[in-house]
Amino acid sequence: MKNWVLFLLSFVGILGGCTAAYLFAKTEPPLAPVYEPVSSPYLKAVYAEGIVESVQTSGENINLYPEVPGTVQQILVIEGQEVRKGTPLLRIDDSIQKATANQQRSAADAAGAILGELRAQPRKETLEIAEAQVVSAQAAQKTATDALAKQQAAYKLDPRVVSRDALDNAVNAAAQAQANLEVAEKQRDLTKAGAWVFDVRNQEKQYAALSKAYEASSALLSKYTLRAPTDGVVLSISTIVGAYVSPQGAYESYSQGMNPVIVLGTPQETLHVRCYVDEILIPKLPPVAELKAQMSIRGSDIKVPLDFVRIQPLVSPKIELSNQRQERVDVRVLPLIFKVQKPKDVNLYPGELVDVYIGQ
After folding, report:
1. Helix axis angle, 197-222 to 95-120, nearest 10°
2. Rounded CA separation 70/92 (Å)
């Protein structure tokens, strides 16, 4: 009985071991790839990594930076919005600069008022006073002259009637009256002549200087509103209301770098693909007239033909691998720009990386 049990247990163990060996040795067929690996459509081709960007006649997307620092007060557009040239995009707090401009405008207005007053001279009322003073001085001079004449006539008739001292006083009074008359006449002529030309010129200079200062403040005040330099589409906004921005851009907390406050592109019916050809592959490129290329959209089987646009004729270090400014690479590349018509029902956006094959 015991032998039979041992035999049964041995048989079960052998059967279990064989089953386990079969199951572990069995290999599952490989899963089909989600999309076909990238391959060249040409017999001979040069591979390059490309990046999608908006259409530009030169350079890349338009990176907008404010010319003045400050706190963002208002964002007037949203990402993806089409804008026209001159459209306000963002406003920075301008309260201090606005107060400065208003103060300088008031100073310029005050200087202008003084200049107008100088140019309007002589004032009618002031001239009338000067004329009245001349008439009064003439009357006083005639009185003094008549009194002197009477004193002299009496002295000639009888020197004992008028003392010499009284006669001298009359002479002095007549001379003083004559001098007063001359002063009044000169004062009238000075009033009639108006403001001195040098005073007018000096005030003109002050008014011009204050006006220029106000114009400069007003021009600077306009810089607190960031406007679209051309027609385009808002691709990205890297700040929010209340954040601080400067001519270096907006601080990005994830990369800890400074990004453009707003990136502006062109309408996205047609896009450009900028690809970077390694310097050791440049000699293998065909002539410009024969350049043809095709791009593959990563994560899909979509392949799109490209039309050659231009070559950016400057071989430069490839620092586009990441957004880190401290990155250092030894690879140098030649940028080639192609045009692509955006396929329907395909998600393709500026900044997307694609694989490009350039036929030889």
Report:
1. 160
2. 6
Nearest Cα neighbor of 108 from 201, 205, 207, 204 is: 207
Task: Name the CATH architecture for the domain at 35-55+266-360.
Answer: Beta Barrel (2.40)
Residue type at position 128: E
Cβ atoms 353, 49 nearer than 8 A: yes
The fold of the 61-92+224-265 domain, in CATH, is: OB fold (Dihydrolipoamide Acetyltransferase, E2P) (2.40.50)
Q: Hey, CA dihedral for 299, 300, 303, 309, is it positive or negative?
A: negative
- The answer to whether the 35-55+266-360 and 61-92+224-265 domains have the same CATH topology is no
* E strand residue ranges, the chain: 45-54, 62-64, 70-75, 82-83, 88-92, 225-227, 232-237, 244-246, 249-252, 257-259, 262-265, 270-278, 293-297, 303-311, 316-317, 332-341, 353-359
β 88-92/232-237 pair status? unpaired
Summarised one tens digit per residue, pLDDT across range 223-254 is: 999 999 888 889 889 898 999 999 998 888 77
pLDDT tens digit string along 93-103? 999 999 999 99
Q: Residue 81: what residue type?
A: Q
